[in-house]
Amino acid sequence: MHSPVRKTILFAAYFSTSLLFFQCGKNTEKEAERTESFVPNPQVVSEQPIAKLAIGAQAPPFNLPDVDGKFHTLEDYANSDVFVVNFTCNHCPTAQAYEDRYIDLVKEYKGKSVSIIAISSNSPIAVLPEELGYTDLGDYYEEMKIRAVDKGYNFPYLYDGDTHEFSLAYGPTATPHVFVFDKNRKLTYSGRIDASEKPGTGNSEDLRAAIEATLKGEALPSESAQTPAFGCSMKWAWKNEYTIKTNKDWAEKEVTIEKLSPAGLADLLKNDTDELLLVNFWATWCGPCIIEYPEFVTIQRMYGQRDFQFVSVSMDTPDQADKALKFLKGKESALPNYIMDTNDKYEVIKVVGSDWDGSLPITLLIEPGGKVAYRVPGTIDAQALKKAIVDHPMIGRYY
Hints:
Blueprint: H1 4-35, E1 63-65, E2 71-73, E3 82-88, H2 93-97, H3 99-108, E4 114-120, H4 141-151, E5 157-159, H5 167-170, E6 174-175, E7 177-181, E8 187-191, H6 205-215, H7 222-225, E9 232-233, H8 241-251, E10 258-260, H9 262-270, E11 276-282, H10 287-303, E12 308-314, H11 321-330, E13 337-340, H12 345-352, E14 362-366, E15 372-377, H13 382-390
Helix pairs in contact: 9-12
């Protein structure tokens, strides 16, 4: 039998262990809540007031997911003497022009009590394909994940594109727009990263000066504490009238189809233009062709205002032109559409070249003069194709 003292010790040990397990369980549950899989839900919201933070204003709280689904709060950065937040996005050419500088700045201040994050606050459903001419990505949450990996982001990249719940309290005016707060989370600087948009011409001078002054507890001169933030306007979820109108206008454009001889195809593929030419060979009886086809319409809308043109070439027989046209109208293919004016498929294959085995679909990205810069036999990877287009020297990501 146990002595009374031994019983007391055993009970105390049991109680302490149970309490420890209970507390660990609570902590685990709490952590699970913050790292559970995030499901984005961008939606149209009614217009709301946008804050204009003054110097000395308190940093508004936030609770937002990063690209891994982990939620971040303002309190997570409480131990840093300086807190920097950059409101940016995937698609804006100005935002992309500053990416490398921001990455370098994070490296520079590593271990110096400076916390640096970025927030994408654009509503992805408020961004038109026509606004994506300088990028391969829109502002959807899943696309943020791609950008973070492609560029090797070394800072948390948070998403607030569903309803702008927290970004509205900061009031960014353009992408990028940076805010700097001191250790008491009072605003010390708001505005641009630096005054030179073109990569290689600036080195984050304005932002660096703000961080350095804030670390020293010094106030910036009033004329330097707030600067304009040049870039793409914020895509708030209630500003969708233009989006609706533009989509409607595109849907109402005339869609036509013309017959193209093998000789005409040969001339087309020479690309005697000053534009990058994307050609897709498809057919109504080709399952993969009709599934992927809407991507090409989106690509034309994205890059059509640049030195770029998409052309579709149907491999249906000439007597199926009406069938092909019906399909194209259903996909709003308001662009140059052709159908081969021959039943001899091998004559067409000969014109395209020996690299084509005749299977559909096949897609060619052709430079002026006829050089094929990018070839996709079979179904495209739409993301890879967009990247090949925007990273071609004729297009590019910056002004």
